[in-house]
């Protein structure tokens, strides 16, 4: 579950970027996997979501949000769950070493 303590406060200026997202109005099932989805079906769905993200004008803001909030599910900012998990784990390792 997303840790809401890392989310920005409910101020429109902080969230306005979402209005410009290419995913706005799209079926959320493209970005979030159904239970037990595996293999090529999951890859195909995730690749479709990433294609939508690729041309998104707010890709960087979305990606930043997903990493800061440590979004556990779905495609955010053109990155899947595993990609974000690796980046977050790497950042934690660097913090422990420092």
TL;DR of this structure?
Its cofactor is [4Fe-4S] cluster. With 98 residues, this protein is mainly α.
Helix-strand sequence = HHHH
Helix content: 40-55%
| Shape summary | globular
As residue ranges, the low-confidence spans are none
How many domains make up the 3D coordinates?
1
Structural summary, described in words:
It is a single chain. With 98 residues, the protein is mainly α. The protein contains four helices and no strands. The mean pLDDT is 90.
Offer a few descriptive terms.
98 residues; mainly alpha
Record the SSE blueprint.
Blueprint: H1 12-15, H2 39-54, H3 59-69, H4 81-97
Domain 4Fe-4S Wbl-type: 22-86
Organism: Umezawaea tangerina
Function: Acts as a transcriptional regulator. Probably redox-responsive. The apo- but not holo-form probably binds DNA.
């Amino acid at each position: 579950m997303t840790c809401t303590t890392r989310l920005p406060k409910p101020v429109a200026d902080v969230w306005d970027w979402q209005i410009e997202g290419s995913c706005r109005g799209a079926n959320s099932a493209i970005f979030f996997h159904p239970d037990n989805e595996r293999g090529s079906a999951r890859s195909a769905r995730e690749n479709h979501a990433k294609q939508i993200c690729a041309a998104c004008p707010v890709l960087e803001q979305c990606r930043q949000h997903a990493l800061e909030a440590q979004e556990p599910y779905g495609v955010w900012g053109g990155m899947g769950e595993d990609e974000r998990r690796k980046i977050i784990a790497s950042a934690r390792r660097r913090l422990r070493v420092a």
